[in-house]
Amino acid sequence: MWASTLSSEAYLGLTIHYVDENWTLQRFLLNIIPFKTRHTGINMATVINNVLCEFNLVSKALALTTDNESAMLVCG
Which of 6, 31, 44, 57 could lock 52 by a disulfide, CB 3.0 to 4.6 Å apart? Predict the structure, then answer.
């Protein structure tokens, strides 16, 4: 998550990391999403899930890593 101090615009960057068939670490930027809602864990999880659905990656996602920001706490 990145927010501009000048314009108050926020963006969520989603990168993918995986090991390919040759056991080589691969990584790429999947999407940068303008973020217009409050920066809560629930809102971020919803946006991330939507992107994973859009790219048909929900069943392939093994883990999600974020910073330790307290807003990322999502209780079920």
Answer: 57
CB-based contacts of 28, cutoff 8 Å, min separation 6:
15, 16
Q: Find where tokens 């303008």 sit.
A: 34
Q: Which amino acid is at 52?
A: L
Structural domain of 59? 2-72
Number of domains the chain is built from? 1
Question: Distance between CA 61 and CA 6 in Å, rounded?
Answer: 34
Q: How is the beta sheet containing 25-34 ordered, strand by strand?
A: 2-3, 10-19, 25-34
Low-confidence ranges of the chain (pLDDT < 50): none
CB 20 within 8 A of CB 26: yes
